[in-house]
Amino acid sequence: MIGRALIGLAAVVVTVAATPPPGASSCSGCHGDVAPLPVISGRDAASIVKALDEYRAGTRPATVMDRIAKGFSRDEAEAIAKWWAAQK
Fold first, then answer.
1. What's the pTM value of the predicted model, to 2 decimals?
2. Which domains does the chain show, CATH number per domain?
3. What is the pLDDT of residues 50-72, one digit of tens each?
4. Interatomic CA distance for residues 55 and 53, integer angstroms
5. Are 72 and 23 spatial neighbours (Cβ–Cβ below 8 Å)?
6. Rounded (to 5) percent helix, strand, coil in the chain
7. Mean pLDDT throughout 26-33?
C-alpha cells in the first residue's frame, strides 16, 4: 500500500514539474534547447532571478529582456526560475 502511495506521489511531482507556471513557456522560443541564446534549462534558479532583477532594474545590458522582465512580478519571476531550474 505504501509503495502505491509513493508511486502516486511521484506521478504528482512529475506532473507539477511538467506544468510551467504562467510566462515560463514564453522563454523557450529564445532560450530553449535549440535556441540561439543561452539555454536556461537546469540553470540555478537564483541566477535566473538575479538576471531578471538586473534586466528589470536596467543594470544588465539587454535588447528586449529588460522589457520582458518588467512584465513579471518578483513572485512570477521566482516561479518561472524554479520551473526552468527543474528542467533538465
1. 0.75
2. 21-86 (1.10.760.10)
3. 999 999 999 999 999 999 999 99
4. 5
5. yes
6. 65, 0, 35
7. 88
